[in-house]
Amino acid sequence: MTRTGMFSESTWKPTRPTRPRYLPPHLRSPQNDNAAFLDNVAPELTRSRFYSPQPARTTRGRGRGRGPRFTARRNPNWEDEKFDELEVVDDTLEEANVANNLEAYEDIPVQASGDDIPPPVKTFDEINLGDGLKQNIRRCNYIKPTPIQRHAIPIAVAGRDLMACAQTGSGKTAAFCFPIISGVLKDPLAVTRRGGGVSTAACPLALILAPTRELSCQIYEESKKFAYKTGAQIAVAYGGTPIYQQLRRLEKGVDILVATPGRLVDMVERARVSLGMIKYLALDEADRMLDMGFEPQIRKIVEQMDMPPPGTRQTMLFSATFPDEIQRLASDFLSDYVFLAVGRVGSSTDLIVQRVELVQEMDKRNHLLDLLRSQRSNGTPHSKHFLTLVFVETKKRADELERWLSRNGFPAIAMHGDKVQMEREQALRSFKCGATPILVATDVASRGLDIPHVAHVINFDMPKNIDDYVHRIGRTGRAGKCGLATAFFSDRNMSLAKSLAELMKESNQEVPTWLSQHAENYSAGSAGGWVRHDAVDFGGYDYRKGTASSSTHNNTYDVPATDGYYAAAAAASVNDPTFLSSGDCYAESSNDDYLVADGMNPYAAAPYGYMYGYGSVIASGWD
Ligand SMILES: Nc1ncnc2c1ncn2[C@@H]1O[C@H](COP(=O)(O)OP(=O)(O)OP(=O)(O)O)[C@@H](O)[C@H]1O
């Protein structure tokens, strides 16, 4: 089936405007970044349902409307003070803005497969998360769940293992944090179990692992907001800082430990943390955690220390990308899991306007300078409202480009793995607050970081594979907001041409003719480059579908993403008591016009659905 066939005529998709000249979002008024961006870069989008004007925020204690901003970290009790300032207010305008932004995700097709899949919800109130957590969800201005939250939270709250894939910036963090916090709060033995003390190990009930220190910190801070005043004890452990402070915190006992793998192994080996009580295990950026770099450590933590086995603990894996090989590996850690894909696995959100420019290596610096100068000459200097994130391939190049940009009048700061942790944190802080509105980074900043006002991501050097590209550009265009991504494509990047062109086409981007040409040439001339699964048709991809043992996972329900879904679900459940109950998977889509795949539930599948082919994915080029 062609992509055109996947969307009914009635399903509006923004067409990309013709762009006579380059005009990055930095040039727009700082009062209204989203609206200005859309007016100037993608004017047609302002007529779309993606668009919601964002008036300057006036709400006391509010940040960018997707949750309170907490920046005063010097005081260890900062979160209490800051959160105390927040009331659960009825700010209808603000709520409407946030909700409108998130409308952008409504039409994304969803597929789930596995046995007895708990059905999705429409609101947070439909799930028994507990009063304290619900109050904090309101405090964070999360009015309604995003699609990944609507689907993943009920599955996780029901105690099921989960492998979940959803686009960057679509709210995966809350999707695993809410069930974990809620589970911990409901556990009557949590307080007695949490361990701690000078001579005893801390015994967390939940472990959240993330690949970078900054991402661990971010998840820790988010979870503290969600667990505010609930009594849940949350701690973070990551390398690059003295271990003793973190150990002292653990002595108070901990329910939820957020950690990077290396530091956690160290703590377990020192017998300061025991994993024997772990009931919930979440891996954020799970494909990265299980790639060649991290897998041995993850195996050690999950299989060779005292963690309860799959089936006894609940395991949740989340990422925006999930290559087939990694899914296969990941299944070692899961038991009878549900596979959930919001959008096609590895797809990018079309909230991000993607541009690709053919720039040879030796011209890159001047090209970048021209780009930044044109932004400046158009009237809007870089500021805290318009941050630019530049990705380069190596640490050395990051330092060099930082110096070169600064020398040429563009304050920039570098962040990479060779900097000491204090410098890394300082760079991120300086970037976030706009003191240094250009961050030059290696892939250490490519995953998970949720930095407000990153309006432009520039791939000065292209990443090694398309999944890394998806994560990098995903630092902009988050929580329903628009963003811009510019890639400098050189002769060295030919192996990416095909997957990049496919990815862009899939997210409704204008693909330059030269790129399509290179894509054709490259795929014709190489049998063995990086191959991603068919990017032309949608298909949330559960690798089990391609295996001989997939017989229990081959039923598919297709239902629409919006209200029709619930109508179809209700009708189906009335007509068919087995609806979503055994050996099922369902695929939610925005499509009204599709073919019914083999084994679909005939009730649910009747008017909606997709046929999709599964191809193989070869994981390659992980850093
Ligand atoms: N239900 C919601 N309502 C309002 N804002 C939300 C909601 N869920 C998440 N957000 C906000 O959306 C932003 C992106 O969320 P998050 O960082 O969890 O995305 P993600 O899917 O994990 O992205 P990535 O793939 O890059 O890690 C955050 O600022 C978060 O506060």
Automatic annotation (TrEMBL):
Ranges of residues in domain Helicase ATP-binding: 153-340
Residue ranges of domain Helicase C-terminal in the record: 364-519
Residue ranges annotated as motif Q motif: 122-150
Provenance organism: Hibiscus sabdariffa (roselle)
Reaction catalyzed: ATP + H2O = ADP + phosphate + H(+)
Pfam families noted in UniProt: DEAD (PF00270), Helicase_C (PF00271)
Compositionally biased region (Polar residues): 1-13
Protein name: RNA helicase
Top EC class, one word: hydrolase
Matching Gene3D superfamilies: P-loop containing nucleotide triphosphate hydrolases (3.40.50.300)
InterPro entries to which the protein is assigned, alphabetical: DEAD/DEAH_box_helicase_dom, Ded1/Dbp1_DEADc, Helicase_ATP-bd, Helicase_C-like, P-loop_NTPase, RNA_helicase_DEAD_Q_motif
Region (Disordered) location: 1-78
PROSITE patterns given in the database record: HELICASE_ATP_BIND_1 (PS51192), HELICASE_CTER (PS51194), Q_MOTIF (PS51195)
Lineage: Eukaryota, Viridiplantae, Streptophyta, Embryophyta, Tracheophyta
